Amino acid sequence: MAHYRRVGDVPSKRHTQHRDASGRLYYEELMGEEGFSSDSSLLYHRELPSAITASEIWDVPDTATTPNHPLRPRHLKLHDLFPAETWAGTDVVTGRRLVLGNGDVRLSYVAGSAPSPLYRNATGDEVVYVESGEATVETVFGALRAEAGDYVVLPTSTTHRWVPSGDAPLRAYVIEASGHIAPPKRYLSRYGQFLEHAPYCERDLHGPAEPLHVTGEDVDVLVKHRTSAGIVGSRVTHATHPFDVVGWDGCLYPFTFNVRDFEPITGRVHQPPPVHQVFEGPGFVVCNFVPRKVDYHPQAIPVPYYHSNVDSDEIMFYCGGDYEARKGSGIGQGSVSVHPGGHAHGPQPGAYERSIGAESFDELAVMVDTFRSLDLGEGGLACEDPAYAWTWARRG
Ligand SMILES: [Fe+2]
pTM (2 decimals)? Predict the structure, then answer.
């Protein structure tokens, strides 16, 4: 994020004395990516951000994976993972279940109404797509409101917690990267401004508007981090509440972007998925398919051509509308399709022909394409529709 933001009380000159009304110094923290060589923010704390009193093991949700072997396209029904009786006791951090993962990215799903513990992910950025429900995301930078269609982008090691609100559970599709997630470079000027051809711009991004101050002592934070044994968790106790910032400024902070603000790029004939891209991360891209007018060449076939993505696994999360190309496959709201490298895929039988003459599609899906193969997590294995792989071969 090269988009500068300033919130709350910061001194006029960085790295200089900043004091409260009684003359007590605030403690400056630089939170920065790639050492001191990329985006960063300066946060001013009331207390020492480094003061901790305990650290214990936290057993993270199951991260074990199973290879997609024998190779199959797959349909995973994520809503089946969280029946209604589980919502009250489930939170977005400890309740998430791993659907798919590799060394670059992990895709999880959760539905629940419980507030989460304080948490930070030191293994990489998270993008949490809110399928439905609403929440406040309290962070060390301030609070964000999250609602259906929001991507909540949480930079690595941002201390935060999820507090769902409203009657419905919060349904969240979680993308955990092994590094940093950002808009595609081709959308940005050499200095980082969104260009005219980008399908969204700075006005569509919403960061915290004011600092969030919470008092407390001996406050636990769940930290996900890496060791030589893989991804592990620790429960770190802070001497005082980490939400004690009086002000911050810089280009690194959490923000939301709602999918309804993505302006679709359309054409006379079928446009390739990169026109739907919203973010990129190490080893993967995120695209979204939004309601839009479709191909208007008089001979156009509006659903996609069959395609072999020889270098990627393609994961679609169906989160709204009607997905024309998948009719007859059993796929519906809350489904994930896994179309791996090594398998040609495309519309279900009949959809190709039926789409001719269509003027618009009312569909909403979030797609993650990875450049290394994905394995199935325990959540993915637990909600698979085993008939999906054979649905293109149905006769009649
Ligand atoms: Fe595809």
Answer: 0.97
